[in-house]
Amino acid sequence: MARITMREAISNALREEMERDERVFIQGEEVGVWGGTYAVTKGFYDQFGEKRVRDTPIAETAIVGSAIGAAMTGMRPVAELMTINFAFVAMDHIVNEAAKLRYMFGGQFTLPLVIRAVSGGGRQLGATHSQTPDAIFAHFPGLVVVSPGTPADAKGLLKSAIRSDDPVLFIENATLYQTRGEVPDDPEHLEPLGKSKVQREGDDVTIVAYSKMVQSALEAADMLSEDGIEAEVVDLRSLRPLDMDPVIASFKRTNRAVIAEEGWRSYGVGSEVSARIYELAFDYVDAPVKRVAQAEVPLPYNSELEQLALPKTEDIYRAAKEVLYG
Amino acid sequence: MEKKDALALFQEMVVIRLLEETAAELYQQGKIGGFLHLYIGQEAVCAGIGSVRQPQDRIITSYRDHGWAISAGLDPKVVMAELLGKVDGCSKGKGGSMHMADVDKNFWGGHAIVGAHLPLAAGLALGDVYQGNDDAITLCMFGEGATNIGFFHEALNLSKVWNLPVLWVCENNRYGMGTVVERASAVSEIRQKAEGYGIRNERIEGMDVVDVRNNVSRILEDIRKNGGPFLLEIMTYRYRGHSMGDPERYRDKDEVKRWEEEDPIGKFRKYILKEKLATEKELAEKEEEAEKIISEAVEFAQSSPNPAKETLFDDIYVADFPVEYRGYTLEHESEER
Q: Which among A63, A164, A251, A36 is positioned nearest to B119, based on CA atoms?
């Protein structure tokens, strides 16, 4: 166990899997000589060489499309998108090829591919570079969509994603890279894909979150605890497949839920999770489910305005109080 | 060309022609659904290339893929069964006309988003280079209409930057759906587009299977020796509409007639007789055999069952994730009711 940052956890996962399996290689913009625009692949070019750490043109279609082709031949590419905002350029390859080829051709081949993408706002990058469009990708059967909220999960989930025979979109949050946490050193530390996890136990209210909002939810839970309210924090970790079991188990005890996501509320993760709560546990509902999400605007550049639009710990705290009528 | 090879090639072209004509009939009878894009008129391209590609060479093409499936070595039975959506189809009835594949034959599909398979082709070649399969070439086919979309340009650029062994084959049949090449492409000589990427290129005629075969054989040898990529533009023509629902307002009947005089099967027949590679009688026997192959394929396809309902959920994921059914997992559904 070591206390390391999310960046180090992700970097370690990549390095360990590349050392473990020759078929794993990385390609993307500035992953090589530059060392990764978020420094995740720093030192990789020197360690693994240009064959396995492949700088690409600024051409997302080519990055993702050729990674799919290589995966069809049995390789295990990790394609990096500098930000998830650029995934729209490669949208066809993510949703029409990666998600469908195996099914459409009757299961003739696997697509052991990982697409890493950086999501999230809050860094004054303006409307086009600050989105959290994670839910869009979770709409498509055939893709696995993973987004960790803690360094330990980041490492364990990324390693599982690389070893998986299914195409995985692995979504990181740029403002979490410096977040520290205890991470097992064990190179076989694997976390299962498609499994939610209780990050904090409590009997009074269920807070469902993923990615950065897990950290905010844990902070909100500490604030609630000071008021004598014990919140259970369920981290979805995977948006597809969506594992509702820990959410429903928790909700059946607390009868109240808040769902927090950084993206927009409309048609979002919270919409899906709350719908399922009503479908699966209607008889246990003591208060309307609350959704905490981003204000429905393109994120502005001005820092004050941007922060105003983003969901905060306080919003989760307030929503929890509301579902408790407290 | 040896007599045996000539006869086999002739029969293959007739099989493709008959398969397509039969598919058109089955479509009109409502037995084939969705879209149906026929390859009739372009047979010299797939047959010529198919006859000289090596088993390690990967084939990937667009949605006009039936001819390519046959030339890649798929049994007409599994092609016909796929057209009818049956479980014995090459894609188990889940792909249909536009999505045929057989990985064991190194045939990687059948892709229906115009141009989207070009980056995939670059990746197939990358996979070969990465694994040290030095002798393998990826043959990627597309229409001239696909050269106006971004996928084409990103894929060509990447193939040159990474020196990938891809033979880019533009089957220029002059029309992207109903829009003639001059109205859609800034340059109508598609091979010129390769110049901008420093990719070697050539334009050849595509109605004569012997020509196609000889040219492609030479180019494949060149790529194996000197590396890739290479762009080959092959001038061809489809006699039928873009798909079965094409009103064909964009071309006159005389134009089609003129191209029909260039019919690749008729041309090859004349060549075979002139070169005394076979007799009229032997060709007639091959045509009869082709008819038998197609009628057996139809019989096979019609008697093949529909895929079982349970297969709806097969092959979405390799991992054993719970099956999602109308928003519930089946487990939750049974638990709650």
A: A63
Distance between CA atoms of residues B164 and A172, nearest Å: 31
Indicate the pLDDT class of residue A1, thresholds 50, 70 and 90.
confident
Fold agreement between A2-183 and A197-323 = yes
Domain positions in chain A are 2-183, 197-323
Amino acid at position B304, single letter: S
Q: For chain B, positions 311-330, list CB contacts with chain A under 8 A.
A: 314-319, 321-322, 324, 327-329
Pairing of strands A168-173, A205-209: unpaired
Annotated active-site positions of A, please? 60, 129
Give the minimum alpha-carbon distance from B194 to chain A in angstroms, rounded to a whole number: 17
Of B134, B66, B135, B132, residue with least CA distance to B102: B66
Radius of gyration of chain A (CA): 19
Q: What is the CA radius of gyration of chain B?
A: 21
At B99, the amino acid letter reads: H
Give the C-alpha separation, A111 to B124, whole Å: 12
pTM (2 d.p.): 0.96
ipTM: 0.95
Side-chain-side CA neighbours of residue A7 (13 Å): 14
CATH superfamily, with its number, for domain B3-308: Thiamin diphosphate (ThDP)-binding fold, Pyr/PP domains (3.40.50.970)
The angle formed by the CA atoms of residues B103, B105 and B108, to the nearest 5 degrees, is 45
CA distance A257 to B336: 20
Average pLDDT in chain A = 97
Q: Which of B99, B128, B318 faces A104 most closely, judged by CB atoms? A: B99
CB-CB under 8 Å, A142 with B317: yes
| pLDDT for residue B232 | 98
SS (H, E, C) B139-203: EEEEEHHHHHCHHHHHHHHHHHHCCCCEEEEEEECCEECCEEHHHHCCCCCCHHHHHCCCCEEEE
- Please give the Cα distance from B129 to B167 (Å, whole number): 14
Measured CA to CA, the distance from residue B275 to residue A238 in angstroms comes to: 66
Ranked by mean pLDDT, the top range of A120-129, B306-315, B319-328 is A120-129
Q: Please provide the CATH number assigned to the domain covering A2-183.
A: 3.40.50.970
Instruction: Test B93 with A105 for CB contact under 8 angstroms.
Output: no
Just give the CATH number of A197-323. Answer: 3.40.50.920
Condensed to tens digits (0 to 9), the pLDDT of residues B160-186 reads: 999 999 999 999 999 999 999 999 999
Q: Which class for A318: exposed (0-12), middle (13-18), buried (19 or more C-beta within 10 A)?
A: middle
Pairing of strands A144-146, B166-172: unpaired
Q: Is the pLDDT of residue A242 over 90?
A: yes
Residue B337: predicted pLDDT: 41
Place of tokens 């499309």: A65
